[in-house]
Amino acid sequence: MNSALRTIDSVPVITDEPTLAPMRDKAGKPIFWQQTRTLCLADGRTVYGCAHCEYTSENVLSIRPHLNVHKARPTTPTGDDDPVAALVARLAEYDRVAAERDEWKRRAKAAERDLRAIRKAIGGVQS
Ligand SMILES: [Zn+2]
Fold it and tell me: What's residue 125's pLDDT?
């Protein structure tokens, strides 16, 4: 597919360039966000797009949070600074606790059964 034919709301995209960030680096030089694309449309509008998918927004600042969608999957969990990895770890912990709880529930029921059998046996002896 020819990228020149890309359209947004059926309006052709004229240019697709890195986005000039609202801040500068320590040396005072402009920073360009390579993954946040500035898309100039044929009707004169400018929208911002994700470099990895079709996501676009008129708000330049909404692209960078969106980039996390692409970051989370291919890289292996790096630790506490990765909220998705932390969430996955918590879900795994929940599964483990739930499995443990089911096991205890099973044992409690088995103990209840034993207790009933013992009561019955004792009752049988007493009567
Ligand atoms: Zn994207």
Answer: 63
- CA dist., res. 38 & res. 1, Å (int): 20
CA of 92 to the centre of ligand 1 (A): 27
Q: Which band of pLDDT confidence, cut at 50, 70 and 90, is reported for residue 22?
A: confident
Ligand 1: distance of its center to the CA of 36 in Å? 9
pTM reported for the whole predicted model: 0.53
Ligand 1 geometric centre to CA of 12 (Å): 19
Residue 39 predicted with pLDDT over 80? yes
Q: Residue ranges of the domains in the chain?
A: 1-74, 75-127
Instruction: Round the average pLDDT of the chain to a whole number and report it.
Output: 86
Distance, in Å, from the CA atom of 94 to the CA atom of 92, rounded to the nearest integer, reads 5
Distance of CA 53 from the midpoint of ligand 1 (Å): 4
Can you tell me whether residue 94 is helix, strand or coil? Answer: helix
